[in-house]
Amino acid sequence: MIEKLSIIAQILIALTILIIWIVRFSRVQREFKSYGLSDLTRNIVGAAKISLSTLLIVGIWYTDLLFISSLLMALLMVAAQYYHFKAKHPLLYFALSFILLLLCLFIAAVARKLI
């Protein structure tokens, strides 16, 4: 049962990242400008998030990929929290990256059989 919840979390994270970084890319561009970060930084972060999302999906079948990919995605979500705080965004901006952070940590814990 817990493994099925982990798979649901993996799919949810991957779809969310893909929607934000592909469908809503213009918003991402505005946010990164408000943070004072370069286009290169934005592109590297985007490539990392899309790559890690792909690994989370592949992790459904190859579970050895889950621990490191979920922790690296969690690290990116911590960075997102920092930049939302730095930009003084409203609480709603913090909510999504915080939920994704918790889901990433859940996946990592399941991958290591801590829960």
Q: Segments where pLDDT lies below 50 for 5+ residues?
A: none
Task: Kindly report how far apart the N and C termini lie.
Answer: 11 Å
Please tell me what the overall shape is.
globular
Structural class: mainly alpha
Number of strands: 0
Specify Rg, calculated over alpha carbons.
14 Å
Helix content class: over 70%
Averaging pLDDT over every residue, what do you get? 96
Amount of beta strand? under 5%
Q: What string, H for helix and E for strand, traces the elements in order?
A: HHHHH
Largest sheet: none
Number of alpha- plus pi-helical segments: 5
Total domain modules? 1
How would you describe this structure in keywords?
5 helices; single chain; globular; 115 residues; mainly alpha
What does this structure look like?
The chain is an all-alpha fold and 115 residues long. The protein has one domain. Helices cover 83% and strands 0% of the residues. The chain contains 5 helices and no strands. The longest helix is centred in the first third of the chain and has 22 residues, at 2-23. The radius of gyration is 14 Å and the shape is globular. 25% of the residues are buried.
Summarize the structure.
The chain contains 5 helices and no strands.
Secondary structure elements and pairings:
Elements: H1 2-23, H2 25-35, H3 39-58, H4 66-86, H5 91-111
Helix pairs in contact: 1-2, 1-3, 1-5, 3-4, 4-5
